[in-house]
Amino acid sequence: MNSLTKEELKHVSDCKKDKTYKKGDVIFNEGMILNGVYCVRSGICKLTKLNPNGNEQTVKLLGVGDLIGQRSIISDEKTNLSAIALNDIELCFVPKQEILNGLQNNRDFSLDVLKHLAHDLKDAEDDLINMAQKSVKQRLAETILYINTNFGVDNEDFLSVVLSREDYANIVGTATESAIRILSQFKKEGLISTEGKKIKIEDRQGLLNQ
User: Fold this and answer.
1) pTM of whole model > 0.85?
2) Distance (Å, whole) CA 104 – CA 109
3) What is the pLDDT of residues 8-39, one digit of tens each?
4) pLDDT tens across 42-70, in order?
5) Residue range 154-167: average pLDDT?
């Protein structure tokens, strides 16, 4: 929102609401009509999609500074994903009309939003290319590195985002058994270590070389 004027920023600040969710809470469900946009102030959430079998597939992870729901607001469509708190999370909620007012009255803001949507589209295209061109092992290694780079580690150097093996499988587009097998292989090769569901990177370059 850096492209908004001071007056517009003050108006948005006056209208915004802080919302908190506990780990596992649903922020919104797939198929809902949103009445505003969320910005992550602290914590992490995951975007999920129900597959034809009724199972939840993790599509993307979002952290501090990321926006949630902007595409649905701008396109005036129902959400095609669900948003779920991965840990305790604090969000800033901006009503839909404030976003639309900014789009209608501020050209720079409109351009910033378009750039943001274009960036999201590029990320989606990159994901499709990775699915087609990279092995499951490569995609899983990249996912571990992505989580480390974007969300950091805890005080014992384990990834701060703790995902199930099923979540990892869903993110890279493989069966849970395959994800478990590859993670075990990474562990044998000394690339990672584990403690329950927690993962620690031991050889970053080794993961990069997959």
Assistant:
1) no
2) 9
3) 555 555 567 889 999 889 999 999 998 888 88
4) 888 888 888 777 777 788 888 888 888 88
5) 90
